[in-house]
Please model this.
Amino acid sequence: MSTAEIVLPALTTSLTKADFLTDYRLAWESRHASLAGRKEVFMGKAKFGIFGDGKEVPQLAMARAFQNGDFRAGYYRDQTFMAAIGQLTWEQYFAQLYANPDVEAEPATAGRAMNGHFATRMLDEDGNLTDLAHTKNSSADISPTASQMPRLLGMAYASKLFRQNPELHQFDTLSTNGNEVAFGTIGNASTSEGMFFEALNAAGVLQVPMLVSVWDDHYGISVPAEYQTTKQSISDIMMGLQRDGEGQSGFEIYVVRGWDYAGLVDTYQRAAAVCREQHVPVLIHVTELTQPQGHSTSGSHERYKSKDRLGWEEAHDCLHKLREWLLAEGHATEMELDEIEKSAAATIKAARTAAWAAFFDPIKAERDEAVALLDKLVADTGTENTMHELVEQLKVNPTPIRADIVRTLRRALRQVRNEKKSFGRRSVQRHLEQLLAENADRYNSNLFSQSELAVGNIEEVPATYAPNAPQVDGREVLQACFNANFLRDPKIFAIGEDVGKIGDVNQAFAGLQDKFGELRVTDTGIRECTIIGQGIGAALRGLRPITEIQYLDYLLYAIQILSDDLACLQYRTKGGQKAPLIVRTRGHRLEGVWHSGSPMQMILGSIRGIHVCVPRNMVQAAGFYNTLLRSDEPALVIECLNGYRLKETTPSNIGEFTLPLGRPEVLLAGTDVTVVTYGSMCRIVMEAAKQLADVGISVEVIDVQTLLPFDTDHLIADSLQKTNRVIFADEDVPGGGTAFMLQHVLDEQQAYRFLDSQPRCLAAQPHRPAYSSDGDYFSKPNAEDVFDTVYELMSEVVPERFPEIY
Model:
């Protein structure tokens, strides 16, 4: 049966007249907020606006099914829903529109995300998770279409783990035995994205309580459904997911019209019950919705919608249909509804006025203080003629922003740079420093955790070794490390392709599924994007996932989610949410175009907010895992693909020793040249260093160990102060990881002061490595390349000792 033929029964939920009128009031408040928001943008009080008008009624129905402990991953039109669950006030709504950076006024993002990006604060002032099981929760929205879907899958997956793993039942502030539903919302056009399909398929395989609502208003900005979706119906084309009956795997799929209040309430009640009780994923296709103001303030929908369509939308506006239903069913009178609409408009006007005052009054006060200080500076320096216009522009600006104030102070100080340092000048300088510090907190803070569990606060525990400790394969070191951590913390679990039954393709999890069960060591399908999303959502809910991407090259499937969601999560909520996910992968040297990648330039440029560990062997990797699994920050750990069969000594405290992030290690002391590298290149450089020693060149080899953070104590600069020469070597393309390291050392650490020779970079060829051992040799730096580069550097310095070779 086509979903279009499904007929829903009349409203069976026991709602009262008061409930109906409460919903009507809230719907109209939301509509007036949308209308007012658009006007505020056009008046110049906000830069951009995107609103939830036309989606009010289905969101009210969804809110009535949303319970304490539930989670939301949505998109930027869910304002009615957020207000209905009590997690958004209209003053907060306008504060976000104005980009108020005060976290008390705008708790979702502290002004860091544009309007319509909702979130609840899941962390207390100390950075610890609050009682998520007894509050209504919204994960932090992101703009890229369908990117909420991978995280949604993870939040639903957490409910499955909390229900099915008895060891997790003790964490009653995180879950009520997995009773929570993860509600997702998405626009009809965004269902064309691959992440949507991938997430739904995974949810069907996993059988998790994920309830997805598709708001279908027929368009994706200006592009109608006939260009977006086969059959112009996402529910029709997803009918293959429909389960055959209770107890069978698959989805439940419902279709309901977006203006049918009774049908919507009933559908959401029944759908959420199935989802919550049976852990069956649900897709609700909400059709026949409208978008009265078009997509956003960027343009008018009259440009691409026909007159007939515009007329249909006006007639089927869900608010108008709700009014008709209330009157027809005798739940209200015309006078009652008119009064509600009038009152709703007044409520929004008051909220808008209060929010603007809360945003603008502090800026105005800052402007007035700056002007007063500048007036004193003018009086002290006698520079009124040159500075008068600058100060006057700031003074008469009716709506200054903080950038105007700081810009004026900096330009004023520029004008008096040749004057004597008067009291007025020092006052302006101090005030500028204060404003810069305050705005750094407003706009540049909280990229990482500020809690006691931040990486930098984890106590360093050195590795210890028993006498005559045996040499084992590197994979066995990791296996012992993971085993110890799984025993220590029941919240830790691992998922990934081939991780479960065979213990990953390199056997670091071998035997652990048999020991800890399938819920903790779990195979997944081939779906890197949602493997990461599964981890993000579970980590948001307080679990400690390790998600494996089989090869570093395949990280590209998930780089968008890592960059747009995980990396900026703490930043975009100003410390309101965290997801301490560990992403485990392997790369560098092996064979071929797609199994030996080192795309560090891409990684370093796209995932600031995630630590990047590049251990040279598996003991170092284990130390990083021990640190990270005790921390509350996300990280990417890139193991050496050719290191699993190399022999290493297992520390006796394999699950306890920790490595600090950001601290390089000197592998070989030297006096002539410093070579800075990491990962598999360490073995190559060490081999070359031995050869160089045979010809009288002393090389200091430094393994940076982590790229983010990078050498926080400036140990590399100390080395350069001794050797006065440096080479940066890695396996990325030219200008990639080598350029990153060079910039940090020469620019940030200012180590250029110690150089007597030009710094050199040694990277791979500007292409993927070719297959075979010869392909590796001629594609990536080898020991001979390192030898020649160091030798050439020394030949320039002491040509008589080191004559040209070639």
